[in-house]
Amino acid sequence: MQSKKIIDKLAWIELKDKSILSTKSYGKDKYYIPGGKREPGETDEQALAREIWEELNVSIDSKTLHYMGTFEAQAHGHSEGIIVKMTCYSGEYSGELKASSEIEEMKWLTYSDRDKISEVDKIIFDSLHHSNLLD
Length: 135
Hints:
The chain is an alpha+beta fold. Helix content is 19%, strand content 36%.
């Protein structure tokens, strides 16, 4: 029996006025909560800070990081059985949000935008909506 493959990712949940900051990379058809994969030896905090700096040109304050949950779902655009595991944190940042690197667009999404996001992000949106953090 084949074991499922896990893609280990981190995500930064930034909420404003009951909407969530989301990004779309060049060539992708879905928006994603900003973040990415950990490099060998990185802690959650180090990987998240690096990814957010690369994608949005802001610095995450690691002392303010707050664990929001870990969510798993079928990975968008991958073959069946490849699962993305998204470990989510909120936290304060400094700087001005600006799409950079592979990010084509950033947008504040609400719960009604669920059709524009990946499966794992839908689970995260559901959780935030249930907690009255996302309209």
